Amino acid sequence: MAQDLTVTRDTFRLAEVFTISRGSRTEAQVLTVTLTRDGIAGRGECVPYARYGETLDSVTAQIAGLPDGIGRAALQEALPPGAARNAVDCALWDWEAKRAGQPVWALAGLGRPGPEITAFTLSLDTPERMQAAAARHAHRPLLKIKLGTPEDMPRLEAVRRGAPSARIIVDANEGWTAEVYADLAPHLLRLGVAMVEQPLPAGADDLLAEIDRPLPVCADESCHDRASLPALRGKYDMVNIKLDKTGGLTEALALREAARAEGFDIMVGCMVGSSLAMAPAVLVAQGVAVTDLDGPLLLAEDRDPPLHYDAAGVHPADPALWG
C-alpha cells in the first residue's frame, strides 16, 4: 500500500431492504480512501459494483498499486474509469481544498453551489407495497421507480395512485427488450413519467436509434466517461453521470461539459453509498436536468457530519465532511 493512501471497508445499514431487478441488499458496503500528506488528510468514497466486474478486493488492490505521491493528472492515466479511481480522485480534491483553504468548487472554477432537488428511489416490491411506499413519500417532488420485470405496469399504476402529484422517472436497469419498451412507452406517457433510464441492456441498445422515443431516454450502464459519448448519439437523449463510473470528480466534470456540447441533457446519479460519496456529485449536479443523489436517504446510519436534505433538496457538503 502506498504510504500516503489508506483504504478501509465501511458498512452502512439500509433503512429498508433495497431491491432492483438484479437483486436485493440490506447494507451498503463501501471503500473509504484517506490521503494524508503534509499532515493534511483528504477523503473519498467509492462503491465497487459487480455489474462492472468490481469487488471490494479488486478495487482495494487497484488502489494499493498506485505510486506514492500521485496527483490527479497522473491518476487519470494510472487507473481506468471506475470505483478505484473515483475514491482516490475525490480524496485528492478534498486534500487540495484543505491544503489551499478553499472549497473544491472554487479550485475547480465552478460557481458557488446550492441545494438541488433530488429524486427519491422506491425499491422494487409488490404493487401494494410500492403504492404504500409512494404514499409515504408523496410529499417528495421527484420519485424514481425501479422496474425491469414482467410485472412493471401494475407497479407503475400503483405508484401513481400512491403519489398522484409527484414527478416520476423510471429505471429499468437494462431489464427490457425493444419490444417491451415500445409497448410500455405509451403507458409511461399516460402516467406522466418524465424520463426512462437504461431500458435496454448496454451493448444491445442499438435498437433505440430505430424506434420512437416518445419520452426522454437516459443512458446509465451505457455511459461511463467521455469515451462513451460517440456510441450514444441517436440512441439517448440524456446521460447519467455517476462518479463511480467516470472514475471521480475530474472526469465527471469533463463528461458533463462534453455531453452538453453534444446536445445531451444531464442526470447525476449515485450508487447506494454514504454522504461522503454524494458530496462531490452535488457539485456536478448543479443546474442539471435530473439529480438522483438519494443514497443517504436510504441509509439507517451515515457519516458525521452528513449531507443536509430538506425541502430545497440536497445541500452542498460541510467542509468537515468533504471539499
Structure description:
Helix 1 packs across helix 3 and helix 5 runs parallel beside helix 6 (152-162). The strands form 3 sheets. Strands 4-5-6-7-8-9-10-11 form an 8-stranded parallel beta sheet. The protein is of the alpha/beta class and 323 residues long. The protein contains 11 helices and 13 strands. 32% of the residues lie in helices and 23% in strands. The two termini are 24 Å apart. A hairpin with a 2-residue loop joins strand 12 and strand 13 (313-314). The radius of gyration is 19 Å and the shape is globular.
Major sheet description? 8 strands, parallel
Order of the strands making up the biggest sheet: 4-5-6-7-8-9-10-11
**Average pLDDT rating:** 94
Shape: globular
How many β strands by DSSP? 13
- Class computed from helices, strands and strand pairing: alpha/beta
β-strand percent reads: 15-25%
Distance between the termini: 24 Å
The helix content, as a percent range, equals 25-40%
Q: Give the H and E element order.
A: EEEHHHHEHEHEHEEHEHHEHEEE
Number of helix segments? 11
The rounded Rg comes to 19 Å
Low-confidence stretches: none
Pick out its properties.
323 residues; alpha/beta; eight-stranded parallel beta sheet; three-stranded antiparallel beta sheet; 32% helix
